[in-house]
Design goal:
Elements (H helix, E strand, L loop, with lengths): L10 H4 L4 H8 L5 E5 L5 H14 L7 E5 L2 H15 L7 E4 H11 L12 E2 L1 H14 L9 H13 L4 H7 L3 H20 L2 E2 H14 L1 H10 L2 E4 L7 H11 L5 E5 L14 H4 L1 H4 L4 E5 L1 E2 L4 H11 L11 E2 L8 E5 L2 H18 L7 E5 L5 H10 L4 E3 L9 H14 L4 H7 L9 H14 L3 H10 L5 H22 L4 H12 L1 H8 L3 H25 L5 H10 L8 H4 L3 E5 H4 L4 E6 L10 H5 L3 H12 L2 E10 L1 E4 L2 E4 L4 H5 L32 H9 L5 E5 L11
Parallel strand pairs: 1-7, 1-8, 2-3, 2-6, 4-5, 6-7, 9-10, 11-16, 12-14, 12-15, 13-14, 15-16
Antiparallel strand pairs: 11-19, 17-18
Helix pairs in contact: 2-3, 3-4, 5-10, 6-7, 6-9, 8-9, 10-11, 10-12, 15-30, 16-17, 18-19, 18-22, 18-26, 20-21, 21-22, 22-23, 23-25
The protein binds a DNA duplex (15 and 10 nucleotides) through helix 5, helix 10, helix 20, helix 28 and helix 29.
DNA sequence: GGCTATGCTTTTTTT
DNA sequence: AAGCATAGCC
């Protein structure tokens, strides 16, 4: 393998690296696999290597780097600009999905797409699924739309089509789901939308069926880089391979212990197959951890060693001993939030930490609410990622739908969402009529609406409402065409649609009304930020893509978030690091999640725990609740088995996925070791709201916070 | 067609 | 608890 080395003028770049890191960063040509344990300086290697490429004279435009999450992309961009300076701005860096959207928009004609096809996001997907269920007469009770969606997405990420799905399907449920899959694809096609999986699949098809396009990309992108390679699914892998082509200048970075996306079709064995897929690949292992103190690393190792299916590696700490890892029992989720935020507030007050150094990590989207409330009550700046975020707020979704209609008059999902928002006389009956005819004739609903409205086939009120809506949209379209700034267009649209009145109608309470209205106005900030970011390159289409793909570039919270506490899922915290981490909800049923235990995915949950623990640099605090409100009812909860694994011994053999609600977690074999927690539980319950220290990993006599 | 009240379901993680 | 769909009234 001819591996040219970085030229001498890049030597300075490499000086801060250890020998392994350096070897990775200066192996510039040919396939390269970097097995990078958590906190081993992976991003540093990646950014240094790109800087080295630039120093060697490779144009920035010839470099493509892909990540999986927007957060990771943004982090990488920041670090890259720091390492390589403004020269790096021309590097193509983004998520797979963002890259694919751009590719498809550019070549839409070749594969028969409209130039501005709508992207079907999760909410749209629900409506498409529902329509699909209806069209094959499957009751939502026999196949839950959510379940169907998950199933279909997994099929697609494995590159199965409905026919293949039906063939391999074992049970009735599978056959049913396969049938719905077919209907779903048809409905998507009728709406001319692409869902997230399609973005990858169509891109791949484009590359396979149009050699010119593929060759063009191979020619342009001389150097490829894939972050978190263990999370790649099949279409992503194929896309990378197609672009890498014969040149094979492909660097992949990953860690099988951090594979947490199996549920969306990622196969972490792929990283172990890299050498087979790309013969002659150089392999570098990074095993020195620069991030966490020994106590944290020790906790991480104690958890992950319980996974049987893994490649054993040893992470050496370079930071030495520090604060002990702590775990606390809390009464309930409110108490948990108060406890963590009190701890946090004291640290911030005393100047021991800056907000940006702190993160609260959680497993599911139901968890962050009390924390957000408490943080805001204490006036602590917070950056929340997840379901309650900007993109998922009803107002934002409504306004986004209007904008989609401005750009794409035939976007049926958007139309159905807001055709009667605010109420303009277009009732369910009219909508039903239109949708039915549209489906029957294979046409789009907007066209049918216009036709029926003009032909007097709708109630007069509905027809009037329709033309008012169309007038508002047309005015906005004219503005866009005239090149008006995005925020101005949005503001005019809000005005024309009297959206403020709608909010006031929906939220009679003063406080809620203010919050909602302010929330709605944030889309103006988002639009402004978008224009700042993209300059003359900004367009409504791109803006909508960002909204759909939830790219956080120019997120309205960005400015304040520069110094805010992060409140984020473990999944989206991957790749990030914080001085202090509070990992909350360490309970059976949450982490590991109940569903995953049922489906035999406990090893993946353990990797999730591992990822969470290894985010912390100097302080790690874990909490769990004794009881928690589920569907409005308090249920007893039990500490996560992963907390127990932090004790010296692995869990007893026969330890089962517990969690039949309300049953205590017990080893399966009667008489095996008893649960180590009851004493602490009792103590905490007796303690009138002050958390008791449940356990301390290596006791340094540190006082529990807040006592 | 719009509004309100009542009942019913809900919980994985990301793009 | 809260959000969502349905039913029944204006």
């Amino acid at each position: 393998m001819a591996s040219r080395r970085a030229p001498a003028n890049a030597a300075a770049l490499l000086s801060g690296l250890n020998p392994e890191q350096r070897r990775a960063a200066e192996t510039l040509d040919g396939p390269l696999l970097v097995l990078a344990g958590a906190g081993t300086g992976k991003t540093k290697v990646v950014t240094t290597r790109i800087a080295a490429l630039l120093a060697r004279g490779v144009p920035a435009s010839a470099i493509l780097a892909v990540t999986f999450t927007n957060k990771a992309a943004r982090e990488m961009r920041e670090r890259l600009l720091k390492a390589a300076g403004p020269a790096a701005e021309g590097v193509t860096l983004g998520t797979f999905h963002a890259f694919c959207v751009r590719l498809l928009r550019e070549h839409h004609r070749l594969i028969g797409l409209q130039k501005s096809f709508p992207i079907c996001d999760a909410a749209d997907q629900q409506s498409v699924i529902r329509a699909a269920l209806r069209s094959v007469s499957v009751a939502e009770t026999s196949l839950h739309p959510r379940a169907a969606q998950a199933r279909i997405s997994l099929w697609k990420s494995r590159m199965s089509d409905p026919a293949a799905a039906a063939r391999e399907g074992g049970g009735d449920q599978d056959l049913l789901a396969a049938k719905v899959f077919g209907a779903y694809e048809a409905e998507l096609a009728r709406r001319r939308m692409l869902d997230f999986d399609d973005l990858l699949l169509r891109s791949l098809r484009l590359l396979r069926e149009h050699e010119k396009v593929r060759a063009g990309l191979e020619e342009r992108f001389q150097y490829l880089l894939v972050d978190e390679y263990q999370d790649t699914n099949r279409p992503q892998y194929e896309i990378v391979r197609a672009i890498a082509g014969k040149r094979r200048n492909l660097m992949v970075v990953g860690d099988d212990d951090q594979s947490i996306y199996a549920w969306r079709g990622a196969d972490h064995k792929r990283i172990l197959d890299f050498e087979r897929d790309f013969p002659g690949a150089a392999v570098v292992r990074l095993e020195t951890n620069y991030r966490s103190n020994e106590e944290i690393l020790d906790a991480a190792n104690k958890v992950i060693r319980n996974n049987l299916k893994r490649h054993v590696k040893t992470l050496r700490s370079s930071r030495g001993s520090g604060a002990a890892v702590q775990a606390f029992a809390c009464d309930d989720e409110e108490h948990e939030a108060q406890f963590v935020v009190a701890d946090l507030a004291e640290l911030l007050r005393s100047g021991a930490a800056r907000p940006r150094d702190c993160a609260i990590l959680f497993r599911t989207q139901t968890q962050p609410r009390p924390f957000e409330t408490e943080l805001r009550a204490q006036g602590i700046a917070v950056r929340v990622s997840g379901a309650q975020s900007f993109f998922d707020r009803k107002e934002i979704r409504d306004l986004a739908a209007f904008l989609r209609l401005v750009a794409r008059p035939h976007d049926e999902s958007a139309l159905l969402r807001v055709v009667n928002v605010p109420p303009r006389g277009i009732g369910d009956v009219s909508i039903e009529k239109v949708v039915e005819r549209a489906a029957a004739q294979g046409r789009d609903a907007a066209g049918v609406f216009a036709e029926m409205s003009a032909a007097g086939e709708l109630p007069e009120a509905a027809a009037r409402g329709w033309s008012r809506l169309q007038a508002a949209l047309a005015a906005a379209r004219a503005e866009v065409k005239a090149g008006a700034p995005l925020p101005q267009t949005v503001a005019a649209l809000i005005e024309a649609l009297q959206y403020r009145a709608e909010i006031e109608r929906c939220y009679p309470e003063n406080a809620a009304r203010e919050t909602r209205w302010n929330g709605a106005l944030e889309i103006l900030d988002f639009a402004a930020a978008h224009e700042r970011h993209h300059g003359r390159d900004s367009s409504l289409d791109r803006f909508l893509d960002e909204l759909s793909l939830r790219s956080e570039e120019g997120d309205p919270g960005e400015k304040e978030a520069a110094d805010a506490v992060s409140l984020t899922t473990i999944h989206s915290a991957k790749g990030l690091e914080f001085e202090r981490v509070w990992l909350v909800g360490c309970e059976e049923g949450i982490l590991p999640h109940r569903r995953s235990a049922l489906e035999g995915g406990v090893e993946e949950e353990r990797r999730l725990m591992y990822v969470a623990v290894t985010r912390a640099k100097s302080h790690l605090t874990m909490t769990f609740c004794q009881r928690r409100a589920l569907r409005g009812v308090y249920k007893a909860r039990h500490p996560s088995r992963f907390l127990l694994e932090l004790k010296e011994k692995p869990p007893p053999a026969g330890w089962v996925a517990c969690e039949k609600e309300n049953q205590p977690m017990e080893p399966a074999e009667p008489g095996a070791s008893q649960s180590p927690m009851p004493t602490e539980r009792k103590k905490a319950r007796a303690s009138l709201g002050r958390p008791r220290k449940a356990r301390t990993e290596s006791s340094t006599g540190r006082e529990p916070p807040g006592s």
